[in-house]
Amino acid sequence: MLNFLTQLFETGEVIVPRHDSSSPQELRRLLAEFDAINRENWNGTAPEFDAVSAAASAKAMLLLCQTVVYREIDEYTVEARLAEVGASPLQSAAVHYRADLVLRFIAV
Question: Please, are residues 29 and 42 in contact by the beta-carbon 8 Å criterion?
């Protein structure tokens, strides 16, 4: 996860790992570092950094990338892992649309 995020933030080109071996503390520390860098370029005052939400978003992004790269990941695994980060594929169509509105741009 840590290399994945570093590649994502620094170059936008990633190698998607099959497994996430990072600890929650390592993940939060890395995200806080990138938040600090991002704040330097922020116009005005940036909102407060929420490490828990940032980590959940990072885990969801990794999972979405893994499902594209590793096609053998079954739907039950995806559902369980999305539930772990606070997302559910069983949410309404409106929720899916809002996510798709942004996520469609990650495919190149």
Answer: no
Q: pLDDT tens across 33-85, in order?
A: 998 988 888 888 888 888 888 888 888 889 888 988 998 988 888 888 888 87
89: tokens are 């594929």
Alpha-carbon torsion angle 6, 11, 13, 16, nearest 10: 0
Which amino acid is it at 97? Y
Domain residues for 31?
A: 2-106
Distance between CA 26 and CA 30 in Å, rounded? Answer: 6
| CA distances to 17, 35, 74, 94 from 77, in Å | 16, 30, 6, 23
Binning pLDDT at 50, 70 and 90, where does residue 4 land?
very high
Q: Which two tokens stand for residue 104?
A: 């469609």
Domains of the chain: total: 1
Contact of 14 with 8, CB cutoff 8 Å:
yes
